[in-house]
Amino acid sequence: MTRPEQTSSAIVDAAATQPPTTPLLRNIDPRVRLVVCIAFAFVTVSLIHMPSLLGALGLAVAAAVMARLEPASTLKRMAALDGFMIFVLGLLPFTIPGAPAFSVAGFEASHEGLWRAAEILLKSNAVVLMILALPGTMEQVELGHAMAGLRVPEKFVHLFLFTVRYIEVLGREYRRLRTSMRARGFTMRCNLHTWRSVGYLFGMLMIRSIERSERIVAAMRCRGFQGRLPSLADTQTVRGTDRAFAVVSLAACIALFTLEHA
Amino acid sequence: MAHIPDGVLSAPVLAAGMAVTLGGCALGLRKLDHDKIPQTAVLSSVFFVASLVHFPVGPTSVHLILNGLVGVALGWAAFPAILVALLLQAVLFGFGGLVVLGVNAMNMAIPALLSYALFAAFARGGNRKLALLGAGLAGGLGVMLTAIMVAGSLALSGKEFDAAAKLTLFAHLPVMAIEAAFTVAAVGLLLRVKPEFLGIAAPEGSYA
To answer: Which residues pair with residue A107 across a beta bridge?
Structure first.
């Protein structure tokens, strides 16, 4: 059993990668961060001119720096932009007519198409980076509470909070079941046996998780749970720094908008 | 595969997706009992975890969508369940985007609802073989309709996406086959062990 060692090394890793002081952005009220992120996403998606798009990416990078996102893992996540979408973008230069830029196997790529692909790439990456920097740095539970604070329906928030918890449980259970399958010599191949076996694995996963959830609900009831989480009712007050952050960010969004329409 | 990032789709498509998802979630949440929230969350997490399981296909690999299975198990609650999972995928991994969340949720939840209707029609009689056939069809249908809706979202956003839209359909063919087989196995197990979870009032001893 290597488990105790693993946990201790995980703790050491976490301590080593944790920045010594809390970055500025992580102290901002989660509700404010969420609203700012949504506003930024809407403005960015509406942009079409290169200068304003570069501005949006600049803002997102600034937010990422302020949130002290780890560059390596963040870049990896951005590169993992759905493989299929890279395909979609790759096709654009060939499907949009215009002045030819270069040709591949007899197909002409147009300047307009390349431009359009670059525009989409800038937009999607700016939004993803802002998501990772603002709501992405929150504890997921914090994000749930932020949504509750913004009047998202309570049932939705409950569903969100329970899901956050179960992903952890399910992921662990999945790894355990996969280990036991591997111990019996199972490897993933491209055949019916694989698909069926993993289907059974997920069926088992669901049965165990559902039964677990039933036990949890019973235990929560026993402690007086009546279908609502009382902690969701507490609302934090918005402080001066939060307000300042909100004003600055919204001003930046408005600046982007003006740059676009200037 | 079915996560469209921000910046690709046109404003009308984005607005339509948002409206449909808001409506679907409102209905789904209204039909969702407080007691059922933990069970629904289990399916949300299954949907989330499924995207991390890669199946080898030829030189590449694909991952499942599982909206068919989520639909079969949840019915209308599939809408909020899928939205929650997509929101978490966006925040944790940067999959998809924020403004496009409505379209992505719609593209996976509408097929989930239709899968549910299809499975319910097949499973009603209490015949195990028919129910399993329904499960396979529901699993395949979930993926196929999602591919069609993703292709439609792209095609409606501009002529330049036509080629990409067609490719989307082909790219999802292997996922469709895998997911059909997968869903038959998963539902088969659930029918045997916990039929009440699938929301079908089965007489004692049926589906055995």
So the answer is: A104
